[in-house]
Amino acid sequence: MMNIIKSSFCLILVSFMWVSCSKEKSLVEPEKIEASESLKNKIPKNLKIVKTEKVNLNNDLTIFICLALDEKKGEYSEYWFSSNEEIKQINKFYSESNKKWFVNIDEDPELEMLKIITEEGYIDCAFYDVDKNSFNSNVIFNFDPLIFKENNKYWGFSGDIDDIILKDKKLLTTIDNNIPDYEEKKMSINQKNLPIIYFSSDKSDLDIIEEKIGSCKFMSISEIKQKIN
Protein backbone atom coordinates (compact mmCIF):
# COMPACT_ATOMS: atom_id res chain seq x y z
CA MET A 1 0.00 0.00 0.00
CA MET A 2 2.83 2.39 0.90
CA ASN A 3 4.48 1.78 -2.52
CA ILE A 4 1.21 2.57 -4.28
CA ILE A 5 0.88 5.81 -2.31
CA LYS A 6 4.48 6.76 -3.12
CA SER A 7 4.00 5.99 -6.82
CA SER A 8 0.78 8.04 -6.96
CA PHE A 9 2.46 10.95 -5.20
CA CYS A 10 5.38 10.78 -7.64
CA LEU A 11 3.05 10.87 -10.66
CA ILE A 12 1.10 13.81 -9.20
CA LEU A 13 4.34 15.65 -8.41
CA VAL A 14 5.70 15.09 -11.93
CA SER A 15 2.40 16.26 -13.45
CA PHE A 16 2.52 19.42 -11.30
CA MET A 17 6.16 20.09 -12.22
CA TRP A 18 5.43 19.59 -15.90
CA VAL A 19 2.40 21.91 -15.90
CA SER A 20 4.33 24.51 -13.93
CA CYS A 21 7.17 24.64 -16.47
CA SER A 22 5.35 24.24 -19.80
CA LYS A 23 3.69 27.61 -20.46
CA GLU A 24 5.06 27.62 -23.99
CA LYS A 25 6.46 24.93 -26.23
CA SER A 26 10.09 24.00 -25.85
CA LEU A 27 10.26 22.07 -29.13
CA VAL A 28 10.79 24.23 -32.20
CA GLU A 29 9.54 22.83 -35.49
CA PRO A 30 11.25 24.05 -38.66
CA GLU A 31 9.13 26.65 -40.43
CA LYS A 32 7.86 25.69 -43.88
CA ILE A 33 8.85 28.23 -46.53
CA GLU A 34 8.83 28.65 -50.31
CA ALA A 35 12.21 27.75 -51.79
CA SER A 36 13.94 30.58 -53.65
CA GLU A 37 14.72 30.09 -57.34
CA SER A 38 18.48 30.15 -56.68
CA LEU A 39 18.09 27.43 -54.03
CA LYS A 40 15.94 25.32 -56.36
CA ASN A 41 18.64 25.56 -59.03
CA LYS A 42 21.15 23.95 -56.66
CA ILE A 43 19.01 20.80 -56.31
CA PRO A 44 19.68 18.16 -59.02
CA LYS A 45 17.04 18.36 -61.76
CA ASN A 46 16.11 14.67 -61.44
CA LEU A 47 14.89 15.24 -57.86
CA LYS A 48 11.43 16.44 -56.90
CA ILE A 49 11.43 19.04 -54.12
CA VAL A 50 9.01 17.84 -51.42
CA LYS A 51 9.34 20.72 -48.95
CA THR A 52 11.66 23.48 -47.82
CA GLU A 53 12.00 24.66 -44.21
CA LYS A 54 14.12 26.96 -42.10
CA VAL A 55 15.11 27.02 -38.45
CA ASN A 56 17.05 29.53 -36.36
CA LEU A 57 19.65 27.75 -34.23
CA ASN A 58 20.33 31.08 -32.56
CA ASN A 59 19.84 34.74 -33.46
CA ASP A 60 22.84 34.67 -35.80
CA LEU A 61 22.49 31.27 -37.45
CA THR A 62 19.67 30.16 -39.75
CA ILE A 63 19.59 26.79 -41.49
CA PHE A 64 17.53 26.10 -44.62
CA ILE A 65 16.53 22.46 -45.14
CA CYS A 66 15.25 21.20 -48.49
CA LEU A 67 13.82 17.68 -48.78
CA ALA A 68 13.95 16.19 -52.29
CA LEU A 69 12.85 12.82 -53.67
CA ASP A 70 14.34 10.60 -56.36
CA GLU A 71 11.06 9.04 -57.49
CA LYS A 72 12.78 6.27 -59.48
CA LYS A 73 14.93 5.07 -56.57
CA GLY A 74 12.48 5.98 -53.82
CA GLU A 75 15.38 7.76 -52.10
CA TYR A 76 15.12 11.04 -50.20
CA SER A 77 17.90 13.59 -50.08
CA GLU A 78 17.92 16.32 -47.47
CA TYR A 79 19.98 19.40 -48.37
CA TRP A 80 21.08 21.75 -45.62
CA PHE A 81 21.87 25.29 -46.79
CA SER A 82 23.46 28.19 -44.95
CA SER A 83 21.81 31.64 -45.01
CA ASN A 84 23.79 32.50 -48.15
CA GLU A 85 22.42 29.31 -49.77
CA GLU A 86 25.69 27.39 -49.69
CA ILE A 87 25.12 23.61 -49.49
CA LYS A 88 26.61 22.52 -46.16
CA GLN A 89 25.20 19.01 -45.68
CA ILE A 90 23.42 16.27 -47.65
CA ASN A 91 21.63 13.42 -45.86
CA LYS A 92 20.08 10.44 -47.65
CA PHE A 93 17.40 8.05 -46.38
CA TYR A 94 14.54 5.88 -47.65
CA SER A 95 11.63 7.07 -45.54
CA GLU A 96 9.88 10.41 -45.31
CA SER A 97 9.30 9.68 -41.60
CA ASN A 98 12.40 11.69 -40.72
CA LYS A 99 10.80 13.87 -38.05
CA LYS A 100 12.91 16.56 -36.46
CA TRP A 101 12.56 19.33 -33.91
CA PHE A 102 15.01 21.70 -32.25
CA VAL A 103 15.30 22.40 -28.53
CA ASN A 104 17.78 23.95 -26.11
CA ILE A 105 18.86 21.31 -23.57
CA ASP A 106 22.33 22.55 -22.61
CA GLU A 107 24.12 25.74 -21.60
CA ASP A 108 25.14 27.07 -25.01
CA PRO A 109 22.79 29.42 -26.92
CA GLU A 110 22.33 27.12 -29.93
CA LEU A 111 19.39 24.78 -30.22
CA GLU A 112 20.08 21.04 -30.30
CA MET A 113 18.33 18.78 -32.81
CA LEU A 114 15.92 16.01 -31.83
CA LYS A 115 15.37 13.52 -34.64
CA ILE A 116 13.15 10.44 -34.85
CA ILE A 117 13.49 8.14 -37.87
CA THR A 118 11.06 5.23 -38.13
CA GLU A 119 11.33 2.67 -40.88
CA GLU A 120 9.95 -0.84 -41.10
CA GLY A 121 11.45 -2.82 -38.21
CA TYR A 122 13.89 -0.02 -37.35
CA ILE A 123 13.83 3.09 -35.17
CA ASP A 124 16.45 5.77 -34.51
CA CYS A 125 15.73 8.43 -31.87
CA ALA A 126 18.49 10.78 -30.75
CA PHE A 127 19.54 14.26 -29.70
CA TYR A 128 22.28 15.92 -31.77
CA ASP A 129 24.63 18.84 -31.46
CA VAL A 130 24.73 20.73 -34.77
CA ASP A 131 28.12 22.21 -35.64
CA LYS A 132 27.74 25.93 -36.35
CA ASN A 133 30.21 25.89 -39.24
CA SER A 134 29.89 22.54 -41.01
CA PHE A 135 26.29 21.75 -39.95
CA ASN A 136 27.48 18.23 -39.09
CA SER A 137 25.18 16.56 -36.56
CA ASN A 138 26.95 14.81 -33.70
CA VAL A 139 24.94 12.36 -31.57
CA ILE A 140 24.55 13.35 -27.92
CA PHE A 141 22.69 10.13 -27.08
CA ASN A 142 19.97 7.83 -28.38
CA PHE A 143 16.78 7.18 -26.40
CA ASP A 144 13.31 5.63 -26.34
CA PRO A 145 10.46 8.20 -26.55
CA LEU A 146 7.36 7.84 -24.37
CA ILE A 147 4.41 10.16 -23.83
CA PHE A 148 3.40 11.08 -20.27
CA LYS A 149 -0.21 12.23 -20.00
CA GLU A 150 -2.71 12.27 -17.16
CA ASN A 151 -0.51 9.99 -15.02
CA ASN A 152 -0.29 7.39 -17.80
CA LYS A 153 2.55 6.45 -20.13
CA TYR A 154 2.06 5.88 -23.85
CA TRP A 155 4.16 4.92 -26.87
CA GLY A 156 5.94 8.01 -28.16
CA PHE A 157 5.18 7.87 -31.87
CA SER A 158 6.57 10.92 -33.67
CA GLY A 159 3.17 11.87 -35.07
CA ASP A 160 1.70 12.01 -31.55
CA ILE A 161 4.39 14.16 -29.94
CA ASP A 162 3.37 17.75 -29.17
CA ASP A 163 6.22 18.90 -26.94
CA ILE A 164 9.04 17.67 -24.71
CA ILE A 165 8.69 17.66 -20.93
CA LEU A 166 11.46 19.97 -19.84
CA LYS A 167 12.28 21.80 -16.60
CA ASP A 168 15.22 24.21 -16.45
CA LYS A 169 16.80 22.40 -19.44
CA LYS A 170 16.44 19.07 -17.60
CA LEU A 171 14.66 16.19 -19.33
CA LEU A 172 12.09 13.96 -17.65
CA THR A 173 13.95 10.65 -17.83
CA THR A 174 13.84 7.00 -16.84
CA ILE A 175 17.24 5.33 -16.91
CA ASP A 176 16.15 1.72 -16.29
CA ASN A 177 14.53 0.88 -19.61
CA ASN A 178 12.50 -2.35 -19.47
CA ILE A 179 10.73 -1.88 -22.82
CA PRO A 180 11.16 -5.02 -24.97
CA ASP A 181 12.93 -4.56 -28.30
CA TYR A 182 9.99 -4.98 -30.67
CA GLU A 183 12.05 -3.22 -33.33
CA GLU A 184 15.75 -2.86 -34.01
CA LYS A 185 16.85 0.31 -32.25
CA LYS A 186 19.92 2.35 -33.02
CA MET A 187 22.21 3.09 -30.09
CA SER A 188 25.36 5.16 -30.04
CA ILE A 189 28.56 3.09 -29.85
CA ASN A 190 29.39 4.85 -26.57
CA GLN A 191 26.10 3.93 -24.91
CA LYS A 192 25.42 0.91 -22.72
CA ASN A 193 21.65 1.32 -22.62
CA LEU A 194 18.81 3.50 -23.92
CA PRO A 195 17.19 5.94 -21.48
CA ILE A 196 13.52 6.83 -21.77
CA ILE A 197 12.71 10.48 -22.51
CA TYR A 198 9.16 11.75 -21.93
CA PHE A 199 7.04 13.97 -24.12
CA SER A 200 3.59 15.52 -23.99
CA SER A 201 0.80 15.09 -26.52
CA ASP A 202 -2.39 16.90 -27.40
CA LYS A 203 -3.81 13.71 -28.98
CA SER A 204 -6.58 11.75 -27.25
CA ASP A 205 -6.10 8.44 -29.08
CA LEU A 206 -2.77 7.17 -27.76
CA ASP A 207 -1.37 3.64 -27.35
CA ILE A 208 -0.84 2.94 -23.66
CA ILE A 209 2.30 1.15 -22.44
CA GLU A 210 1.45 -2.14 -20.76
CA GLU A 211 5.02 -2.88 -19.67
CA LYS A 212 6.22 -1.87 -16.22
CA ILE A 213 8.34 1.27 -16.46
CA GLY A 214 10.83 2.42 -13.83
CA SER A 215 10.68 5.69 -11.91
CA CYS A 216 11.38 8.98 -13.67
CA LYS A 217 13.01 12.26 -12.70
CA PHE A 218 14.34 15.43 -14.31
CA MET A 219 17.97 15.07 -15.36
CA SER A 220 20.44 17.17 -17.34
CA ILE A 221 22.04 15.70 -20.45
CA SER A 222 25.36 15.39 -18.60
CA GLU A 223 23.66 13.43 -15.80
CA ILE A 224 21.96 11.17 -18.33
CA LYS A 225 25.21 10.51 -20.21
CA GLN A 226 26.97 9.58 -16.97
CA LYS A 227 24.27 6.98 -16.27
CA ILE A 228 24.13 5.40 -19.74
CA ASN A 229 27.76 5.45 -20.90
Topology:
Blueprint: H1 2-20, E1 31-33, H2 37-40, E2 48-58, E3 61-70, E4 75-81, E5 87-93, E6 98-103, E7 112-119, E8 122-130, E9 137-142, E10 144-149, E11 152-155, E12 163-164, E13 166-167, E14 170-174, E15 184-185, E16 196-200, E17 217-219, H3 221-228
Parallel strand pairs: 8-15, 10-16
Antiparallel strand pairs: 1-2, 2-3, 3-4, 4-5, 6-7, 7-8, 8-9, 10-11, 12-16, 13-14, 14-16, 14-17
Fold and architecture overview:
- With 229 residues, the protein is mainly beta.
- 14% of the residues lie in helices and 42% in strands.
- It is globular.
Large-scale geometry? globular
Q: Strand percentage, roughly?
A: 35-45%
Helical percent range?
A: 10-25%
The overall strand count is 17
Structural classification: mainly beta
Low-confidence stretches: 1-22
Provide the succession of SSEs. Answer: HEHEEEEEEEEEEEEEEEEH
How much is the radius of gyration in Å? 19 Å
Largest sheet: 7 strands, mixed
CA-CA gap between termini: 35 Å
**Total of helices:** 3
> Mean pLDDT, nearest integer?
87
